Amino acid sequence: MATRSRLGLVARRLAGAIPSIIGVVVVTFVLTRALPGDPAAYFAGAAADAESIEAVRHQLGLDRSLPEQFVGYVVALAQGDLGTSVSSGRPVTIELAERLPASIELTGLGLLFALMVAIPLGVLAATRPNSWVDHLCRVVVTAGVSLPTFFSGLFLVYVFYYLLGWAPSPLGRLDFIYLPPPQVTGFYTVDALLAGDTETFFAALRQLVLPALTLGLFALAPIARMTRGSMIQVLSGDFVRTARAMGLRRRTVLITYALRNALLPVITTLGMVFSFLLGSNVLVEKVFSWPGVGSWAIEGLIASDYAAVQGFVLTMAMLFIAVNLAIDVLYTLIDPRLGMDG
Amino acid sequence: MAAALLAVDRLSVSFRTRSGVVKALEEVSFAVGRGEMVGLVGESGSGKSVSAYAVMGIQDPAARITGGTMHYSGVDLTAASERDLQDLRGCEMSMIFQSPRTALNPIRTIGRQIADVLLRHSGATTRTARDKAVEALAQVRITDPARRYGAYPFELSGGMCQRVMIAMALACDPQLLILDEPTTGLDVTTQAAIMDLVQELCRARNMGALLITHDLHMAADYCDRLVVMHAGHVVESAAVATLLSNPRHPYTAGLIAATPAPDRGLEAITSIPGSLPDLRGTLPPCRYRQRCTRALPACDLPGLAMTELDTGHLVKCRNPL
């Protein structure tokens, strides 16, 4: 009985995402058309006359009315066609397929690093208020919030590449002496492992460490702060007192009883943190010459390449919806109380 | 009363707070024997729960035991390590709390929570723990215990949650049960049902029980002996009948006069003047001094101690009734 109602709840959450997706499709279309500048004039070049600009405009489909353009856009979208990037002349879907895994690999590792540091740090700080761990937590949180990512990125490069020489040159996903592994998932580390090529795996990992740390430092602060606050609240709760009065081991009390309850609000923040990361990706990718979607979108924006920008915004929005949906579903599965009032 | 199961002797507990040291308990002594239910009564803030938490070893981190001893079946609780105390808690001595719905983990099924205690203490395996937990639920007369095993606290009523708490506390057959206002937040019929159940189970197992309550009626109905607390002091202790019919401490008399009874109208109920003193800084030997109508100049002299007026009837007062 409980399982079925929960499945129904998950289905309802999934259905709830459909309006957001429609909204995103409309908004990306309108926003990219509202970009300043005339792409036709831009791509026709400086020497173009009015006639050739018109020709380019017709070729791009920009001479049609907005509703017509929108219908064409939706029909193409339904067929998985995001248009052609006017600056590179390549289909946007292919560009995205190449660059999105690079960004996701970086963001994923950054988030993983942030979680692995922030949650234990938050828990330790909460169990030992005003100890050195608590102060460390406070310093890390303040630093993470106040240091801009491009600064911490450059700082890490300066220390670990320039001064210590531990890190490889911050130029992309692989040092030029290595060949990218055969593409399966698009994640170099995973693909290298699938190909059984540990050397390339470690090379790819080494490239990843600094940018992932930069992103992680940024993501760490809200997660650690949330974990600490939520943990302190839960630890003073009645059921933790009960668990202690029943003689349960400290580990069980802390992890099974307190942390699981404390993680509920942390999971909610994760959705927000992820969207922050998508935003700060752009800067980190620039600093580390990372061939991800962020830097590509910036170039597209500067070049008035609306197909690229539109593809980027659409993908990011979809990703964001997917992540929030996953968090919603996860939350529903963890917290049994949601089944009742959903 | 034979050798006491729990003996608390001149226990003092202080809290370090930002605004000074709060002397929450001073020289508190009481004992609980096997098969006996002792009531710890007094108004809110008199130190009843602090005493119980100190016995269980689950007091607030800011609390410090500054003097006295606590013995459970000969084991010195004040000297025991946290690890040894953990082994005792939930196994030898157990505790039931007020507001049972929040006292249970909201996102873990009640069966799993009972099984956690069984796995910790009774050497049950994951497989047998389930059956034992269902058995424990059946013992507190929860209908269809096998199905309730998978229920979450929010799916049960308050009275049902308190039954679950009792099942959890008794799962490992403890010798001592502490009940911290177990019926607060339950309706009157449920209160009686819960207390009857506790009394029955305690008698059947010959357990010692310590009932913390501010409800003098309930204490009178279920307890063998009463210990009256005021502002961190034990002011009087005696058998229930003696204490109610012949209170010797002015505070106990005040408490009784402030309790509604079937044969007494609302106008006959009197309140105790004043409120609990501030427990910071230096305090007079008798902490009831400021509220007492029978105070004498001698009350300010140091050296006030519990005196045995009759057999088993102890009072801490220089001018008893």
Salient structural properties:
heterodimer, A: 342 residues, mainly alpha, MetI-like fold, 2 domains, B: 321 residues, alpha/beta, Rossmann fold, eight-stranded mixed sheet, four-stranded antiparallel sheet, 11 helices, 12 strands
Structural class estimated from helices and strands of chain A: mainly alpha
Q: What is the β-strand count of chain B?
A: 12
CATH T-level fold name of the largest domain in chain B: Rossmann fold
Mean pLDDT over the full residue set of chain A: 85
Order of helices and strands of chain B: EEEHEEHEHHHHHEHEHEEHHEE
Oligomer: heterodimer
Number of strands of chain A: 0
Classified by CATH, the class of the largest domain in chain B is Alpha Beta
What are the segments of chain B in which pLDDT stays under 50 over at least 5 consecutive residues?
none
Major sheet details of chain B? 8 strands, mixed
Helix content of chain A: over 70%
The H/E string of chain A reads HHHHHHHHHHHHHH
For the largest interface, the chains and their residue counts are: A-B, 25 and 31 residues
The average pLDDT of chain B is 89
Percent of residues of chain B in helical segments? 25-40%
**Largest sheet entry of chain A:** none
Please characterize this protein's 3D structure.
The complex is a heterodimer of chains A (342) and B (321). With 342 residues, chain A is mostly helical. Chain A folds into 2 domains: 1-87 and 303-342, no CATH class; 100-292, MetI-like fold (Orthogonal Bundle), CATH 1.10.3720.10. Helices cover 77% and strands 0% of the residues of chain A. Chain A contains 14 helices and no strands. Chain A has helices spanning 2-33, 39-44, 50-60, 66-78, 92-127, 132-146, 149-163, 188-194, 198-235, 238-245, 250-287, 293-302, 306-334, 338-341. In chain A, helix 5 (92-127) packs antiparallel against helix 6 (132-146) and helix 12 runs antiparallel to helix 13 (306-334). The mean pLDDT of chain A is 85. With 321 residues, chain B is α/β, with parallel strands linked by helices. Chain B has 2 domains: 33-61 and 81-92 and 176-315, 3-Layer(aba) Sandwich (Rossmann fold), CATH 3.40.50.300; 97-173, no CATH class. Chain B is built from 11 helices and 12 strands. In chain B, the strands form 2 sheets. Chain B has an 8-stranded mixed β-sheet, with helices on both faces. A 4-stranded antiparallel β-sheet of chain B has the order 2-1-4-5, with helices on one face. Chain A binds chain B through residues 2, 237-239, 241-250, 252, 256-257, 260-261, 264, 334-337, 340, and chain B through 56, 58, 85-91, 94-95, 97, 99, 102-108, 116-117, 120-121, 150, 152, 154-155, 165, 168-169.
